[in-house]
Amino acid sequence: MLKISHFSKSYDGKKKACDDVSLTVEAGEIYGFIGHNGAGKTTLLKSIAGILDFEAGTIEIDGKSIKTEPLEAKRVIAYIPDNPDVYETLTGLQFLNFVADIFGIPVAERKPKIERHAGMFDLLGVLNDSIATYSHGMKQKLVIISALIHDPKVFILDEPFVGLDPKAAYQLKEIFRDLCAKGALVFFSTHILEVAEKLCTKVAIIKQGKIVASGTTAEITKDQSLESVFLELIEK
Amino acid sequence: MTAFGTLTRTLLRVNFSPRRILGTSYSDSKGKQILIAVAILYIVVLYMGGFGFLFYDLARTLSTIPGMIESLLLYVYLYAAGGTVLIVFFRADAMLFRFADFDILGPLPIKPRTLVAAKALVLMTNVYATSLFAIAPIAFGYFSFATPGIAGILLFVLVFLFAPLLPAVAAALVSFLIRLVTDRLPKSKMFNTILMFAFFLGIMFSSFSFAGTGESNPFLAQSAVIAAFGARFWPMGWFAAAIHEGSLVAAALVIVSGGVPFAAFILILSKLILKTNAKARNAIATRKKRTLDYRSSSAFRAMLGKEWRTFVGVQMYIFNVGFGPVIMIVLSVASLFFADRVLAFLFEMTEGVVVPVHFLILGFIAFAVSMVYTSAISLSIEGKRFWIVKSLPVSPATVMDAKLVFNVLLGSVPAVFALTLLSIAFAFPIPDALAMIVGVVAFSFLTSALGSIVNLRFPKFDFHHEVEVVKQSIGALLGVFGGFGIALVGGFAMFGLTRVMDWQYALLATAALAAIAGYGIRLRALRLAENLFIKMKA
């Protein structure tokens, strides 16, 4: 469902932020993307979401190229950035209605979803408040709720657990599992290796823009911890 | 280097670097640099050609009357003070009382007075830059005919630095008091906006009411009032005496009358100012009992709704871009009751040029519509939130079209309303009124389309506060002055056509040209958006 082939991206035309990256994520997989700061994780995730342009390679989402058919591809994606900058002049509900309108989700369909997820993340009581009054974690939760409005087939997240309280982090993991059980895929970057090790069916490790290891979590870790494998690969 | 020196140097670098002022991508191409240089030259020529000529003419007239040339220095003080009041009044909140980088600077081991002094200095740098631009034509007129010598020029520089301090303190205190009062009210943002608008309009109308009618040069008509001001407000007189007479005592009085209140403001209020900043971080969520409203709309209307909520949600946006609609509505409603006074007020704005009433009204409406420039900055306002529209399944063309249509609505709806009332007040025949409405809507469409191109070419996503986009960006500059330029070209085109047809037909023909040009520019903007969105870094 998510196929990245020979993807390369450079910001200055000289140094490559991502260099010949190829990955395939199938439906039902929770795929962890691990790397040090500046390794190229966010660059790849933003390119998948259609936020960044890239020079070489292809990214296909559900068979649609993000470059040549961006709108069709974006209809099945949900993207959550590492920093939840949202429209602070809107209320939480206005933002959710805005996203639902863009996806063309009718009221009868959006209402139960918003109420279920807002209830789950303890945001129901503040949906009529201005987003400017929300904390970082509340904004993060709001963006997660907005991402679930259209039942995405491809869920792309950049450091999703940063800023979430333990209960919300647990619920997000449950949402991952639930989405995958319904045939969607989850592709997320993280620095929390314990989470990646326990949650992900597959992982990829990126170092200076290149994939240095990828496969099922069991294949990658063998009899070691993911932390040991990661440190070994990064220090090579 | 001291903490104050390091902090001030860093803040000045952050606030006034070319990258910060002009946007993130101005240096990408030579073409953009040339365009910026041409735009700045155009603005300077337009400004100096208009105000510069009028003040030079005024200086020449005053130089023929013994003892009058120094009164130009009173103009310098008053215009510098007026500019200072407006800048500080509108920016003190964002730059002093709720500055965006408080989260970074607040926890640092810096004394409150050091931090507030550095912030105040950055604010004053804004003031000096803008005041210098405002008084340049007057100073040019004065120094062309008066001969105060090198000492006079040096004293001019010295007292110019201190003169704006007293008005700056007064404006900061008023802005602070309004904020303190309105923060306690429900709908505080709305009350604050209304009060600020009322204060601003009050200053504007009173400044225009200085001028009488019948003088060929409107600034000459202001001289009696300004002289009276100078006699009562001592710092004005000291300012003039310091420069014209080379009086060191007067210069010392200007320095003391500005420096002491400014220093006192920092020393006494610095702790309170930092407390206000800290409070702004603790905004309490107001739990509303309203039921949740899950209304749906089309993607385009959702985009329009977002534009509207951003507009009304950012105070600096309303003040600057909403000024045009507000003045159109205020003046047109006033015309129903005080038609003669409104007409006299409008004639003051023509700087002495006598024009027929319908041209005068068209000029005023075009001026007000030119000041509606959301399409030239609203893409930049997306800032760090640009990822939202970029990741959603909405085409760049739809995003830009919504921004364009929003600007047309924001300019045209109040313009149509104002033209209707003005037509009633001045008893214009219905066909004339309709022709004017068509002309103004076409003008609004053209300036909006041009604004879209400007913002696509000169985006500025890297900002700390919206004021940097709304007031200090190339997009804002080109948006407003581009509108003025189009109004001028349209005026000349219409004037030319009136030699071969009635003015109503000339106006409709000009409107048709504007609409065709606007449509072409819109199509270009939408194509550009499709190509540029993905390349824009935000």
Summed up:
Helix content of chain A is 38%, strand content 25%. With 236 residues, chain A is α/β, with parallel strands linked by helices.
Which features would summarize this protein structure in a list?
heterodimer, A: 236 residues, 4-stranded antiparallel β-sheet, 10 strands, 38% helix, B: 538 residues, mainly alpha, 78% helix, globular
What does this structure look like?
Chain A is 38% helix and 25% strand. Chain A is α/β, with parallel strands linked by helices. In chain A, the strands form 2 sheets. In chain A, strands 6-7-8-3-9-10 form a 6-stranded mixed sheet, with helices on both faces. In chain A, a hairpin with a 5-residue loop joins β1 and β2. In chain A, α3 (92-103) runs parallel beside α5 (136-148) and α4 packs antiparallel against α5 (136-148). The longest helix of chain A is centred in the last third of the chain and has 16 residues, at 166-181. Chain A starts with a strand and ends with a helix. The mean pLDDT of chain A is 93. Chain B has helices spanning 3-16, 18-22, 30-63, 71-97, 102-105, 112-145, 149-162, 165-183, 188-209, 218-221, 223-232, 234-244, 248-281, 299-313, 315-321, 323-337, 339-349, 357-370, 378-381, 386-391, 396-425, 430-457, 467-470, 474-497, 503-532. In chain B, 42% of the residues are buried. The mean pLDDT of chain B is 85. Chain B is globular, with a radius of gyration of 24 Å. Helix content of chain B is 78%, strand content 0%. Chain B is mainly alpha-helical and 538 residues long. Classes of the chains: A alpha/beta (236), B mainly alpha (538). At the A-B interface, α2, α3 and α4 of A face α14 and α20 of B.
Q: Mean of residue pLDDT of chain A?
A: 93
Shape of chain B: globular
Largest sheet of chain A: 6 strands, mixed
- Low-confidence segments of chain B: none
Helix-strand string of chain A: EEEHEEHEHHHEHEHEEHH
State Rg of chain B: 24 Å
Total number of helical segments of chain B?
Answer: 25
Average residue-wise pLDDT of chain B: 85
